[in-house]
TrEMBL record:
InterPro entries: Metalloenz_LuxS/M16, Pept_M16_N, Peptidase_M16, Peptidase_M16_C, Peptidase_M16_M, PqqF-like_C_4. Its cofactor is Zn(2+). This is Metalloprotease. Residues 424-707 form the Peptidase M16 middle/third domain. Residues 819-917 form the Coenzyme PQQ synthesis protein F-like C-terminal lobe domain. GO terms for molecular function: metal ion binding; metalloendopeptidase activity.
């Protein structure tokens, strides 16, 4: 008996020890934090633990928070926001690309894609996305080196349904075999989208050239090569690999959840516990590793690499220890504030004065890294700076030496702390989704105590001089490496190639002149010094009270003054009640932009002004004031936002400086050089973005000048002409001023009078205004084609623009909004998910300067633009039926979702001011537009929508069908001639392009045309497919020494499901399958 009691006691001790050992793997649990106490949910009586301490919370944050830990160790924060019209949630897993298996690089990112593809309870791969979009929401996910985060926002009423669906990602995902190929293609498209992106290329090169045994060196995104091809080569199923990865690493213990909604915290906790407790607890599954990516084999090196665009990059990287435990001291904030300072005596101002650099960015790479970190100083050099890069490096270390010699300064820390405390005290309420993202993805630092869960490292806390000095000691010439990027390096050849982006580079050892041989005298040679105290810190943060009864809000600004030279609008803050303000000043000038040279001169003037202002008004940015000054030729636009106390002083200082501005020769020279560089780099922008500018040119926006026209005349611009243009702005003008926020009427009038006093000019008659003008396009179908100038980009792009009525009509605006709301997700689902056309697939509604509403459909893909346009046409043709199949209940829910979106409460004074400004700037002064639109929406029915579709979108019924197609062709595809397009049907051109892009290019277009004319679909598509294969083989074999050529072997693939050649052949023969169907409702 005693022996049995002894073993029972021993068993209890062992179990307790095992429990503590298991929970010591970095989880937040009761033994570590006694203030987490057991609780039960109110409805289902489910167990969880709640933090009973006090969360550090802004006094201006009226939301209610509960921090809880589920029985499976998942930590969640639930946020009750009674005023939000949008709910949101985010779940972040502390597993990212560092965890990629060496044999399957990019697997964590591929897993992110696969989890969207259905669960046992919700097997349709579009179920989650359609539920979100149908309830006025959006969803997305991202994979970084250390985490994978899934998030959404949605109408409050649909929050529980969205939580139910997303929770199943982590409980019983399907990993459907038919989705594997689709999503690996999507990952590959995402990778190929970035192949010509210098940012992605550079980041991957830096990772590749680190300690090869460290997980930091892995390729992040994944591709067909690293996933599908590798699995086939190894005889391992890709589905098995992703399932095994999910089972091994996706553990509740390393997940952080945040839920925001207008429900009580008890209700949100109920849902969190009920829906997420089934996620399996596997302990701390975070990847364990040792060492530093920047070890001795990497430090002391210099890497020259080639860029796609014209960029001159200098990057210094220093090996740092882990910084997570230092979040409260924040020595990096102190050092980075000084390194990034652009004021007098700073490193940045020195480099700009020397014309060596246009920008400097110092940052810690990622606060979440375990066991290491990397301090990065990125210098955007000028061409002159590129030749002087060694002197730039010397200047960097001289500035660091100045900081070390002066030692940590407590007054600087206290200034940073004062700004931080003000931002905290008067916290601007973020959107629900931003809150959810920050509370989940930003919560993986195990050193952050529960009390700081909401604020984390956002506050400047304790002054720690030793921590600052210790961090500075790592920034030394024996602990770094250098990257130098340019399109070409005349003094050496970049003969080595990075594997995944094909970046050319050359690796060498740093010379002694950049390591031990540096001798620096910062006092004598550089004139560096610490910044002075910040004059833009607010001295008064009192909030002006409102005379309106509590809860009542003035819905429009008041016109305070209207003269022949100025128009002043004002609204005192009556809903946010913080010491913030927003000032928007628009000074209209006579139209001087009638030629390309006029446009170039305006751009040069704007660059000259901002290069000077960046230094002179940098202190305002540090004090929490956001400002922008834009000289646009036909107007000057000044926008200020921040603590109201200093905004009038800053506006006056900007206007005084602007009206006396003299362009210096070296500033003009730098601006000219950077503008030329900008023009040249436009050709390297990804195709989907280029299409926007191309469309503006095609739609005849006046004045609009393509980059090629500006580039051709820039050398004719002189400093004298630029100065004359700048001086002319005070001859005649008309100002519109909006003052919103913590001001009274008297202060707003004083701002107006100050503006007139400083900016002295005569009034401008209205006929000299230069409003946006667009040549009205006659009804018809217009197609514009261009070829990409970047010869290495494999992507083409298409933008289809359809006019859908005047924007001045409430009815037409609402119809366009509704189309935008219901189109985007099905369009994305069909062309991206199902047809795998490319990574960038979207549709949107835009109010054009012509005063017309427009629907736009955009696709970027390796497929040819004719094929892409045909697939868009097929989607549009079938979408009427999609609308027709809406039940009355579903349509009412759709309308309700759009109403809730329009009813969404403004979050900040700036949001309110921007809403007012859109009506002031347009000149319609329709401040009641949203309420008018909501009233119209509430009377809308499905028949109204179908009527609008037939009137504007359906080419078979629209009486004034107006459409513009913009095509950008990759240089890697054969660009059809005008003759070919006029002779051959678009189906033949499309089919020819698909065969070429998939590697079957042995049949010329005339032979393909004859084949299509003689083919028949009487016996289905398989018969003409077989005939096409036979034709191809007959043409290919005589040209090859062996019948085993890869394209002949692969020709059978054109019969596969999802083959673009198969689809193109069906379209060429006039009988392609239906584009998409409405998913069944759950």
């Amino acid at each position: 008996m005693q022996q049995r009691l002894f073993f029972k006691a021993l068993l209890v001790v062992v179990l307790i020890w095992l429990y503590k050992w298991y929970n010591a793997e970095g989880t937040l649990e009761v033994e570590e934090h006694p203030s987490f106490v057991p609780r039960k949910t109110t409805e289902l009586n489910l167990p969880y633990y709640e933090f009973s301490g006090t969360l550090e919370q802004s006094p201006n944050d009226s939301r209610e928070y509960k921090l809880v830990r589920l029985p499976n160790n998942l930590v969640a924060v639930c946020v009750h926001d009674p005023n939000t019209t949008k709910a949101a949630a985010s779940l972040s897993v502390n597993v990212g690309s560092l965890t990629s298996p060496r044999k399957f690089l990019g697997l964590p990112h591929f897993l992110e894609h696969m989890l969207f593809m259905g669960s046992k309870k919700y097997p349709l791969d579009s179920e989650y996305s359609l539920f979100i979009s149908n309830n006025s929401g959006m969803s997305n996910a991202f994979t970084s080196k250390t985490q994978t985060t899934y998030f959404f926002d949605i109408a409050n009423s649909a929050l529980e349904g969205a939580l139910e669906r997303i929770s199943k990602f982590f409980v019983d995902p399907l990993f459907a075999p038919d989705a594997i190929d689709r999503e690996v293609n999507a990952v590959d498209s995402e990778h190929k989208k970035n192949l010509q992106n210098d940012g992605w290329r550079f980041r991957n090169l830096k990772s590749t050239l680190t300690n090869a045994s460290h997980p930091y060196s892995k390729f992040m995104t994944g591709s067909l090569e690293t996933l599908k091809d590798t699995s086939q080569a190894l005889g391992l199923g890709l589905r098995d690999q992703v399932v095994d990865f999910y089972k091994k690493f996706y553990s509740a213990d390393i997940m952080k959840l945040a839920i925001v909604g207008n429900y009580t915290t008890d209700q949100l906790v109920e849902w969190a516990v009920a829906k997420f407790s089934d996620i399996e607890s596997k302990g701390n599954t975070k990847l364990q590793y040792s060492g530093h990516p920047l070890d001795s084999s990497v430090l002391g090196k210099i890497v020259y690499f080639e860029t796609v665009g014209e960029h001159y990059v200098l990057n210094l990287e220093f090996a740092m220890p882990e910084m997570k435990s230092m979040y409260a001291a924040g020595p990096d904030k102190y050092i980075l504030t000084l390194l990034n300072n652009e004021g007098p005596g700073s490193l940045v101002s020195y480099l700009k004065e020397k014309e060596w650099a246009s920008a400097v960015d110092g940052h810690m790479e990622n606060p979440e890294y375990d066991g290491f970190n990397i301090f990065s100083l990125l210098v955007e050099m000028t061409p002159k700076g590129y030749e002087e890069y060694e002197n730039i490096v010397h200047a960097v270390f001289a500035y660091l030496q100045m900081l070390a010699d002066n030692g940590p300064q407590q007054w600087i820390h206290e200034e940073l702390r004062a700004i931080s405390d003000l931002d905290f005290k008067y916290l601007k309420k973020p959107k629900s989704m931003n809150t959810a993202l920050e509370m989940s993805s930003g919560s993986h630092n195990e050193y952050v105590v529960p009390e700081h869960y909401l604020t984390k490292d956002s506050l400047v806390r304790n002054y720690n001089a030793k921590a600052i000095s210790d961090m500075l000691s790592y920034l030394n010439p024996q602990n770094y490496r250098i990257f130098i990027g340019a399109q070409s390096h005349s003094k050496l050849n970049c003969t080595e190639r990075e594997k995944f982006y094909n970046v050319a580079y050359h690796l060498a050892t740093l010379p002694p002149s950049l390591t031990s041989g540096m001798s620096l005298n910062w006092k004598k040679s550089y004139g560096f010094h610490l910044p002075t105290q910040n004059k833009f810190l607010p001295e008064n943060t009192d909030v002006i009270g409102t005379e309106l009864p509590r809860g009542e809000v003035q819905l429009a600004p008041t016109l305070l003054r209207l003269t022949n030279s100025t128009e002043v609008w004002f609204k005192q803050d009556d809903q946010f009640l913080t010491p913030h303000g927003h000032i928007h000043l628009n000074i209209k000038l006579p139209n001087t932009s009638t030629t390309p040279l006029d446009r170039v001169l305006a751009q040069l003037v704007n660059r000259c002004i901002n290069k000077v202002f960046e230094s002179e008004f940098y202190a305002a940015e540090l004090a929490g004031i956001e400002y922008s000054v834009a000289y646009l030729g036909t107007r000057v636009e000044i926008i200020l936002a921040g603590f109201s106390n200093k905004l009038p002083h800053l506006l006056e200082a900007i206007l005084e400086r602007l009206t006396s501005f003299k362009i210096e020769e070296h500033i003009f020279s730098m601006s000219m050089s950077s503008l030329k560089q900008h023009y040249r780099n436009e050709r390297h922008v990804m195709p989907a973005k280029q299409l926007v500018a191309t469309r503006d040119q095609q739609l005849n926006i006046v004045p609009f000048w393509p980059v090629q026209a500006l580039e051709s005349v820039i050398d004719n611009a002189t400093i004298e002409e630029a100065q004359a243009l700048l001086d002319s702005m005070q001859v005649q003008s008309f100002s519109k001023l909006l003052v919103v926020g913590n001001f009274n009427e008297s202060e707003a009038l004083n701002i107006s009078r100050m503006t007139e006093r400083v900016f002295r000019s005569k009034s401008m008659p209205s006929y000299l205004y230069s409003p946006p003008r667009v040549v009205d396009i006659e009804p018809g179908h217009y197609i514009y084609r261009n070829q990409l100038q970047n010869k290495n980009d494999p992507n083409s792009a298409v933008l289809v623009t359809i006019y859908c009525g005047p924007a001045s009509s409430t009815k037409e605006r609402i119809m366009a909004n509704m189309f935008d709301h219901i189109l985007n997700q099905p369009f994305y689902e069909q062309l991206r998910t199902n047809e795998q056309l490319g990574y960038i697939v979207d549709s949107l509604n835009k109010n054009h300067d012509s005063g017309k509403e427009m629907l736009m459909f955009r696709v970027q893909s390796e497929s040819n633009p004719v094929y892409l346009t045909q697939r868009i046409d097929r989607f549009i043709r079938d979408f009427r039926q999609y609308i027709l199949e809406y039940s009355t209940e579903d349509f009412d829910a759709l309308v309700d979702a759009v109403v809730k979106t329009k009813n969404e409460r403004l979050k900040t004074i700036t949001e309110e001011a921007e809403l007012f400004w859109s009506s002031i700037e347009s000149g319609d002064y329709d401040f009641d537009r949203i309420r008018e639109e909501i009233t119209y929406l509430q009377q809308l029915n499905k028949e109204d929508l179908l009527e609008a579709w037939d009137k504007y979108i359906n080419p078979e019924t629209a009486t004034e069908y107006t459409r513009v197609d913009s095509h950008l062709w990759s240089a890697k595809l054969s660009y059809p001639t005008d003759k070919e397009l006029s002779v051959y049907p678009e189906g033949v051109v499309s089919l020819y392009g698909c065969m070429e892009s998939e590697g079957f290019s042995r049949i010329d277009i005339s032979e393909l045309d004859r084949f299509v004319r003689g083919a028949s679909l009487r016996n289905g598509i398989e018969s003409p497919l077989r005939d096409l294969k036979d034709l191809y083989i007959s043409k290919a074999k005589p040209l090859e020494a062996s019948a085993n050529a890869s394209d002949i072997r692969d020709i059978d693939n054109i019969s596969a499901s999802g083959s673009k050649i198969k689809t193109a052949l069906e379209m060429a023969l006039g009988s392609d399958s239906k584009a998409f169907t409405r998913p069944a409702s759950n």
